[in-house]
Amino acid sequence: MTKDRKQIILQSLAKLLEERDATKITTAVLASESGITEAALYRHFPSKRSIFLELFTFCDKTVFQKVGEIKKEKNIEPEEKVRLIFFFFAIFLEKNKGFARILSREALGPNEQNVIDSVNQFYERLELSIKQLLSSKKDSLKLTPGKSAHFITSIMEGIISRFIRNKFKEIPSNYIENYWVSISNSIFRT
Question: What are the residue ranges spanned by the domains of the chain?
Fold first, then answer.
């Protein structure tokens, strides 16, 4: 039952992050949404910060599991692997809007500095994964693998900001192909 309640709490937080301004999510609101008491919430998590961290950890594991699978594919060129990672990331956020608020750091206050640090490391690892893929094809790049990876990761962060700014109404899959064409034209030699 403990595992089930933790899942319910995490799913409730993700739902709340989708629906409302993150600054208005108190432990009382989260407990109410979860259908448990605030005291019960603290039996499963020592702090609000730990709830955010566990939700982020789930997001991190999900994204990097898929990135790892894509990187291991034998019959796909590195450029295509990067495109698949880019598309996966956008579609993942589209389907998990609450994670967008965490990955933008919008939902995180000064008390969640450890989560903010984890999000920053997430982007560094994502950028490194893309750089590693592009390094094997550096002769086909207009920019260095590092600059190319930085450019792609920056666009990914921009997609999140735009998605939040338009209140999740304009979904990334509507324009992701256009972004990829622009990225390709900017970093790959033709």
Answer: 1-45, 48-187
> Average per-residue pLDDT in the chain?
92
* Residues 188, 47: Cα–Cα separation, whole Å: 46
Written as six digits, the tokens of 88 are: 């996966």
Residue 10, judged by CB atoms within 10 A of its CB (0-12, 13-18, 19+), counts as buried
- Closest alpha carbon to 180 in 93, 78, 72, 82: 82
pLDDT tens for 74-116 read 999 999 999 999 999 999 999 999 999 999 998 888 888 999 9
Q: Which residues have a Cβ under 8 Å from the Cβ of 69 and sit 6 or more positions away?
A: none
The rounded distance, in Å, linking the Cα atoms of 149 and 124 is 10
Nearest to 17 by CA among 114, 89, 104, 88: 104
pTM to 2 decimals? 0.90
CATH of domain 1-45: 1.10.10.60
* Mean pLDDT, residues 137-149: 95
Domain 48-187 has CATH 1.10.357.10: yes
Orientation angle between helical segments 113-135 and 78-95, nearest 10 degrees? 150
